Amino acid sequence: MGPGERERKDAARGRESARTQERAGPFQFLRAIAGGSASIAFRGAANIPGRAMPFAYYDRLSARAQDIYRRSDRVSEIRLPHPEALRDLVAGLRTALESGDGKAVEVAAGLLGRGLTEMLEVRPVAVQVLRVRPSSSGGELQGLYTPDPRRTPQIQLWMRTAHHRRVVAFRTFLRTLLHEIGHHLDYEYLKLADSFHTEGFFRRESSLFTQLVPTAPAGGAPV
Ligand SMILES: [Zn+2]
Question: What does the pLDDT look like over 196-207, one tens digit per residue?
């Protein structure tokens, strides 16, 4: 067992306590519907509080989790060595989404996820695309990342809104995919023991988006 592996096991133990303390925070940390393992749910940018940092839930984290939070917050970019090599996959995702075909969207999102993880030389993540977003008092669930130190981690995305059952707009869908991949990269690329929604995290998500969709205004509202 190398030091990284040991850290990962420690992380798996520590994650639950950090999660418990974060329950009252601005972001929802849910149990996966299947499998019962811990998952990280994203309910959309509407839940992002004011930009004053750190976010309010920081005070409720353990000292160890606060250290992870600060390390996450310090990194504002994930630089892709060859973003242009992924742009055909981004275009493919747009085409698939416009077709409204769930299987095509799942294949396209999976290929983009694979392209990103291979380019960054981290282990893969599986992408599953589901139909209508679950809706609850906390808002519509957009995406879910389930870390797993032993098996392939999984991202679940929903391609239709709960209210009107419309296909999610391309930029919103891509941003949600990159958000969930961002959680994966926190563990696998930045080697953080937990993945928090920090300002740095959202900046990394935006950095991926602007590299893949270079004409998009930085931080612009999804259309
Ligand atoms: Zn998230």
Answer: 999 999 999 999
